[in-house]
Design a protein that fits this description.
heterodimer; A: 309 residues; MetI-like fold; B: 493 residues; alpha/beta; D-Maltodextrin-Binding Protein, domain 2; four-stranded mixed beta sheet; 19 strands; 46% helix; disordered N terminus; Bact_solute-bd_prot1 (chain B); DUF3502 (chain B); SBP (chain B)
């Protein structure tokens, strides 16, 4: 047994070496910190190093979790986090798959590369910068949008104090920033589809639309399911940068911009309780884990081959 | 199946190996500490000093020079680590929580909260050390600082001797004041600003009459229990009752005035989300704003903006917890050499040679002396440009070119004229209501900036905010604060 292990190890050592950085990363940043989860049940106080402090801090049971559920805000932030993420997952999927299909059908490949690159670029911008981009459009006195509205004789809007339009603005900004990146994944798998399938379909007289519906989409299904399952696992994590920087932390917009992550951040600016922020993180992970298991289970019931595990 | 077990076994082995390595490190540390305190009398001790400010190129060079001096005086060398302004709070939080070796660290009401971290056990309690090695500190710095920075009756840090009270002023852009011959002599209240703002609004359409960012809060004669939280006590000390500041008549009328100013266009439309007004001060396109002052502050402001700035008071000079805890050096609870650290802090706050070296660098390299009191910065000073306020006793510092000889006497006079807030020395412990504080903080962020800058109408938003605060558990927080305050008052009679 041992011999066979080493033989296999030897045979795959190059591949294993390639896995090593990623494996180490997960070990250090995902598995080792798991022990720190204990902090969620402690009133963390400093005493020597981290482990010492952790062990010596008072055990408080579920007290650290109370702040997430005790107030009216709990409903708002859970609702906002869930609804935005559902919108992001759904619209993100539709737009990035659509975009990938359009790009793959472009005859001029150089132009396709140009489009792809320019849509990919916003992904690399930090949310702080995106926040200022949005501000240059939405500023009350100097914003582009109010100038355009003024041109049509519409009064200037106080964008940063009126929550009405923010769900749309946030979703738009999110899609603008992210679909370029996610469409690359789909584009790559579309390009991997055997061209002879399309040729056969064309000989049979299938239109472009029929080709997409009967060849591209069915073959994309596994990757769509995987990407969606992964996104579902993060459904309780909101993109902090988006919800904090783009609305410029404007208080009057909180009813539609406050999500779990921003709520936790704002709350701990004052109390700085490590235990309570760990509790919030643990809660998000556990719910995410449960959701992934449930949706994977559902997928397996429907189509065994497409499930993640 | 067996494949899976193998892998799990490997992972387990790796984890075990790693934890051995980790605990090995811990063990070494302990050993080092043992030998350090045992035979420390012969070998010089290295003190690790964390402080706030943009890291400077020449820190190590200057500290080498400082170490020569301190080795001679107290047999200790200094290793200074600077952390930039914006990162200080967060990085220190992690460094302290993970038990990083350090001896001395900067803390204040604003950056790496002094009271909170003292209570969480980040700092060493200094009462005994202060008696033993800190006599110089007790003799030199204003006693108001030491008594005001006590947490639950104990000292956890050495405050920097500087301006003690907090005095709010209206600052005026003198160019505009002169141009329109505005009369600033009668200005003190928020209401008294109106004619000036009106004139500028009418005559200078490009100018923002009333400059402010999202942190602006109209002055009301109350002292806040926690910086920027709505629980406050009346400054005249008449009733020692904790109230929600939004429910007071003073704040209500101030907010109405602010809203009137906002609607009249005296305030920038985006004030509630603006992080800084430096674009206004750089361009000079503002008439007035409010700031905290210290003696000779007008000179500093005028010099840094490049045009004259004048001020008139907007409040009394009050000594508050926040003003006392503006800059503190604490000794880490993890320090391996607390006695030496205390000796060093004592020297830093009493010895002009050391204090000036830490502040201005090496004579002849970073600065040169003009006369006994004054120095001039040399070009190399930009490689060692330290925030003076954060590093210890300010009154030992050389004066800059152009400073009057009696600068520090003016500071002493200013300090002696400050009135103590009735809750000076009382520090609210929010542990019991941490859940409510988180919710209250969120409500505060939701309403605060837009109310304070006048962006929204207090007639509709004030009742709404008060109601939301109640729902978040404000009453429980206030009741807890009140009972702590009552106990404190009884104990300090």
């Amino acid at each position: 047994m041992a011999g066979s292990f080493f033989r296999r190890f030897n045979r795959n050592k190059v591949l294993l070496l390639m896995v090593l950085p990623g494996a180490l990363w997960f070990l250090f940043f995902s598995y080792l910190p798991l022990f720190g989860t204990i902090a969620a049940f402690k009133e963390y106080r400093f005493r020597g190093g981290f482990w010492n402090s952790l062990i010596n801090s008072k055990f408080v049971g579920w007290d650290n979790f109370k702040f997430l559920f005790n107030t009216d805000a709990a409903f708002t932030i859970t609702r906002n986090t869930l609804l935005y993420n559902i919108a992001f997952i759904f619209l993100g999927l539709v737009f990035s798959v659509g975009l990938a299909i359009l790009l793959s059908e472009l005859v001029n490949k150089r132009l396709a590369k140009l489009y792809q690159t320019s849509m990919f670029l916003p992904y690399f911008l930090s949310w702080v910068i995106v926040g200022y981009f949005a501000f240059s459009f939405l500023s009350m006195d100097r914003g582009l949008l109010n100038h355009i509205l003024g041109y049509f004789g519409v009064d200037s809007m106080q964008w940063y104090s009126d929550p009405t339009y923010w769900p749309y603005i946030l979703i738009f900004v999110y899609l603008w920033k992210s679909i370029g990146y996610s469409s690359v994944v789909y584009l790559a798998s579309i390009l991997g589809i055997d061209r002879s399938l399309y040729e056969a379909a064309m000989i049979d007289g299938a239109s472009k639309l029929q080709q997409v519906r009967n060849i591209t989409l069915p073959l994309l299904k596994p990757i769509i399911i995987i990407m969606t399952l992964l996104a579902v696992g993060k459904i309780f994590y909101a993109d902090f940068g988006l919800f904090y920087n783009v609305p410029r932390d404007s208080g009057t917009l909180y009813s539609v911009t406050n999500v779990i992550d921003t709520y936790v951040y704002r709350g701990f600016k004052v109390t700085g309780e490590i235990g309570m922020s760990t509790a919030a993180g643990l809660y998000q992970s556990v719910v995410g884990f449960v959701l992934v298991m449930v949706s994977n289970f559902a997928v397996r019931k429907l189509d065994k081959d497409s499930a993640l595990f | 199946m067996s494949k899976l077990k193998k892998r799990a076994g490997l992972a387990l082995a790796a984890t075990t190996a790693l934890s051995v390595v980790l605990s090995g490190c811990g063990g070494n540390n302990n050993e080092a500490s043992g030998s350090g305190s045992g035979s420390g009398s012969e070998k010089p001790v290295e003190l690790i000093w964390y402080t706030i400010g943009t890291p400077q190129k020449d820190v190590d060079t200057v500290m080498a020079e400082v170490s020569k001096y301190t080795q001679e005086k107290i047999n200790a060398t200094i290793k200074m680590k600077m952390i930039d302004w914006g990162d200080y709070q967060q990085k220190m939080q992690v460094l302290v929580a993970s038990g990083e070796p350090m001896d001395i660290l900067f803390t204040s009401a604003g950056g790496f909260d002094y009271v909170q971290n003292a209570r969480k056990g980040a700092f060493l309690e200094l009462d005994e050390l202060l008696d033993k090695y800190g006599q110089g500190i007790k003799d030199t710095i204003d006693p108001g600082f030491l008594s005001g920075s006590k947490v639950d009756g104990h000292n956890y840090g050495i405050p920097a001797n500087k301006e003690l009270p907090q005095l709010e002023v209206w600052r005026f852009n003198k160019n505009l004041v002169d141009k329109y011959q505005l009369d600033t002599s009668g200005i003190r209240t928020l209401e008294s600003l109106e004619p000036l703002l009106k004139t500028i609004k009418e005559k200078e359409s490009e100018v923002t009459p009333f400059g402010m960012d999202k942190n602006f809060v109209p002055y009301v004669p109350y002292d806040y229990l926690v910086t920027n939280m709505p629980m406050a006590v009346k400054l005249d000390g008449s009733d020692m009752k904790v109230v929600n500041i939004l429910e007071t008549d003073e704040m209500k009328s101030a907010l109405e005035t602010m809203h009137k100013y906002y609607m009249a266009g005296y305030i920038a439309p985006e004030a509630a989300t603006t992080g800084s007004t430096s674009d206004l001060t750089t361009s000079g396109k503002w008439l007035l704003d409010r700031a905290q002052t210290q003696p000779l502050a007008e000179n500093l402001w005028s010099a840094s903006y490049g045009y004259p700035v004048t001020t008139t008071p907007a409040s009394d000079a009050i000594i508050t917890n926040t003003s006392v805890q503006g800059s503190i050096m604490a000794i880490s609870a993890n320090s391996e050499h607390p006695e030496k650290a205390m000796e060093f802090l004592n020297l830093l706050n009493t010895d002009p040679v050391l204090r000036n070296m830490v502040d201005s660098g090496i004579e002849g390299t970073h600065y040169e002396k003009i006369d006994d009191l004054h120095i001039k910065n040399l070009d190399a000073s930009q490689n060692y440009n330290m925030p003076s306020y954060s590093l210890g006793n300010n009154m030992l510092l050389y004066l800059n070119e152009g400073d009057p000889d009696d600068k520090w006497d003016q500071f002493k006079k200013f300090n002696s004229e400050g009135k103590a807030s009735p809750i000076l020395g009382f520090n609210f412990d929010s542990t019991k209501v941490a859940t409510e504080m988180t919710a209250v903080q969120n409500v505060k962020e939701q309403f605060w900036a837009s109310l304070m800058t006048g962006t929204v109408d207090p007639a509709t938003f004030l009742p709404k905010a008060i109601d939301e605060f109640k729902k978040a558990g404000m009453d429980k927080v206030i009741a807890e604060a009140q009972s702590q305050l009552d106990a404190w008052v009884a104990a300090n009679k």
